[in-house]
Structures are given as structure tokens and as C-alpha cells.
Write a structure and sequence with these properties.
By secondary structure, the chain is α/β, with parallel strands linked by helices. The protein is built from 15 helices and nine strands. The chain is about 50% helix and about 10% strand.
Length: about 350
């Protein structure tokens, strides 16, 4: 097969891919016209780079869920079960989430657009207080796909909006990438840690957020790479932040802040006993009775380094204890271990 035949085959593959793609008709026709023009430039030195760029562009627009949506399953009983299974305590917060879902259910049953009529929640709290997992629970409670966009350290609005496809290494922004992962046009999109963008890029990034969070604007969101409006008005956005100091006023006007409380030592102990330990034992393939704890050792596990508002340190501590037990089992030193006030330091991880 000579070069001309190879080129013709590649062009035909792109044309075939376009023909099968479920994309807006005017976008398809515009891209088909550009592919036809490209076919007339086969002898140009820029042809192969342009062919590669066109192939990647068609791959991207074909992977976007332009017309796919998932059905909401707004069952408040099931929603409460999901919240209770993932989070201990936090009853006022759970009650607020159930109120939020109740409004969504009423709007949906009246035939309205849930995303346009629902407030955009902002979970505010210290590290490890469960902001991200609470957002996942909301998605699980209503049966929507969940995707996360991390904002920590983001300094360029093009990270969200993409780069023009004329640039050789251009690609879409994180919004389009999130839709491709979700494969539905109405996922729950978590905008995680929106207060942690860089100082240099904060103003421009907050401007993009205003557009994303405004239902009057996000029905025609334009990514620079895709260069065609996509409707985000059915997507549900949830945001998180450690604090609201660095969030622009225009963005805060579109958000409903909900404070994530810190956990008390007593709550941490219950979380460790009922949630973290069974999960870590299962992940480590250890039986439930492999480790038993005296009641007075749990405080050492709940607060190994002093006060901590969240449960990440607690999670790491329990994992460290289970790892040490797993090593001792593999070394043949026993199958069941009893942790007491006298020996607990042998099992705690070294910080």
C-alpha cells in the first residue's frame, strides 16, 4: 500500500467515525467540510500534522455525551439509607440534604428542570470532614454519575475551558473531560476546593465559575478546543471549600454554603469501629475477629497526634494497625491479636 492509499484510508476512517457519531448535525456538517478540504492538501508539508489534529478532534467530539442523560431516582428513604451508610452523625447536615432532595423531587414531578431550580450546594469545612464523600452520597442518593474536578493549585482558566485546537498540543478543558468520563449530560460535577486556586489565576477562574454556575449562561458553555456550545444546564454542580475567604462574591452569590462540622473524639471512635475498621479488614483480606481492641485504647487511635478536625489521620492510623497485624499473620506469629493499653504502641504506625 503506497502513501496515497494510506492517506486515503486514514481520511476514510475519520469520515466513517464522523458518520457514526451522535453529535449535533451542524457541527457534523462543519467538520465534514473541513475533512474534505483537508483531503485536497495531501501534498502539503502540513498535511500529516493537520490530519493528526483532525483525527484527535473527531475522537473528542465523538466521545462527548451530547444527547445522553440518566434518569433521576429520587427516593428519600433510599437517600437517607445512603447518607447513613456513608456518614455517622451529622444529622442536621443530612436533614438539609434531604430537604434539598425533596425540592428536587417536587420540581422533577412538576416537569421542571431540576438543575435550574435547585440551589448549588457549597460544603465548607476543614480537611477530612467529609465534604467530598458527602457530595458522592448525594450522587448515589439520586442515581446520577459523579465526576470530580480538583481546583487545588489551578492557575489557568484554560484548565477548565480548554485550548484552541490550532495549538499542536491542545486538548479540551476539565469540564469536557468530566462529561466524557460520566458519559451523560446530567452528572453531578464536584468542583472540589474552589478556594485553593492560585492567586494569579483566581480572577479569571472565578469568571469561568460564574458562567458554569449560572443556568442562564451554562446552557451554551463553549470549550475553546471543541469550539461549539454544549448544554450544561442539566448538570448538577456541588462545590467544596476549606473556607470562603478566597471565593469571589459573584461566585458566592450562586452558592448555598453548608458548614461541615468537625468530629468529636467520641464520634471518631464510633466511625473507626463501625466504618473504617471493617472496611480496612475486608480490603486486607483479614477476618473480622483478627483484631480485638480494649475500650481504653481507642482514644490513642482516634487522636494519635493531637486534635484533628477530620478523620483522615484516623483512617491512616487504623490502616497502619491493620498492616502491622497482616504482617504478623504472614510471618506466622498468630491469627488473632488483642490490642490493649500496654501493647498499643507496638501496633500504631510510626509518624
Amino acid at each position: 500500500m503506497d502513501n496515497q492509499q494510506i492517506v486515503g484510508s486514514l481520511l476514510n476512517q475519520i469520515i466513517e467515525k464522523l458518520g457514526k457519531a451522535d453529535i449535533p448535525q451542524d457541527l457534523k456538517e462543519g467538520v465534514q467540510a473541513r475533512v474534505s478540504q483537508l483531503g485536497a492538501l495531501t501534498n502539503s508539508p502540513t498535511f500529516l500534522p493537520e490530519l493528526d489534529r483532525m483525527n484527535r478532534y473527531v475522537e473528542w467530539i465523538s466521545s462527548i455525551p451530547w444527547n445522553k442523560t440518566s434518569a433521576d431516582k429520587l427516593d428519600l428513604v433510599k437517600a437517607k439509607e445512603v447518607l447513613d451508610s456513608h456518614h455517622y452523625g451529622l444529622e442536621p447536615l443530612k436533614e438539609r440534604i434531604l430537604e434539598y432532595l425533596s425540592v428536587m423531587k417536587m420540581v422533577m414531578e412538576s416537569g421542571g428542570n431540576v438543575a435550574q431550580r435547585s440551589p448549588i450546594l457549597l460544603f465548607v469545612g476543614l480537611v477530612g470532614t467529609g465534604k467530598t464523600t458527602m457530595a458522592k452520597s448525594v450522587a448515589g442518593a439520586i442515581g446520577r454519575e459523579f465526576v470530580r474536578i480538583p481546583f487545588g493549585g489551578m492557575g489557568d482558566p484554560m484548565d477548565l475551558r480548554g485550548q484552541s485546537k490550532v495549538n499542536p498540543e491542545a486538548e479540551p478543558g476539565k469540564i469536557i473531560k468530566a462529561l466524557r468520563v460520566a458519559q451523560t449530560r446530567n452528572p453531578i460535577i464536584l468542583l472540589d476546593e474552589i478556594d485553593r486556586v492560585t492567586d494569579a489565576g483566581r480572577g479569571a477562574i472565578m469568571g469561568v465559575l460564574v458562567e458554569l454556575l449560572d443556568p442562564e449562561q451554562n446552557h451554551a458553555f463553549v470549550d475553546h478546543y471543541i469550539d461549539y456550545p454544549i448544554d450544561l444546564s442539566q448538570s448538577l454542580f456541588i462545590a467544596t471549600a476549606n473556607n470562603t475567604t478566597n471565593i469571589a462574591t459573584a461566585v458566592m452569590d450562586r452558592l448555598e454554603p453548608i458548614t461541615m462540622p468537625s468530629y468529636s473524639d467520641e464520634e471518631k471512635i464510633v466511625i473507626a469501629q463501625k466504618y473504617i475498621l471493617p472496611k480496612v479488614l475486608k480490603e486486607s483480606a483479614l477476618p473480622e475477629n483478627a483484631i480485638t481492641f480494649d475500650d481504653d485504647v481507642w482514644m490513642s487511635i482516634a487522636r494519635p497526634l493531637g486534635y484533628d478536625a477530620g478523620i483522615r489521620t484516623l483512617d491512616r492510623t487504623v490502616q497502619g494497625v491493620v498492616r502491622k497485624v497482616a504482617k504478623m499473620v504472614v510471618e506466622g506469629k498468630g491469627t488473632q491479636f488483642h490490642i490493649t493499653h500496654d501493647n498499643v504502641k507496638q501496633f500504631l504506625p510510626q509518624w
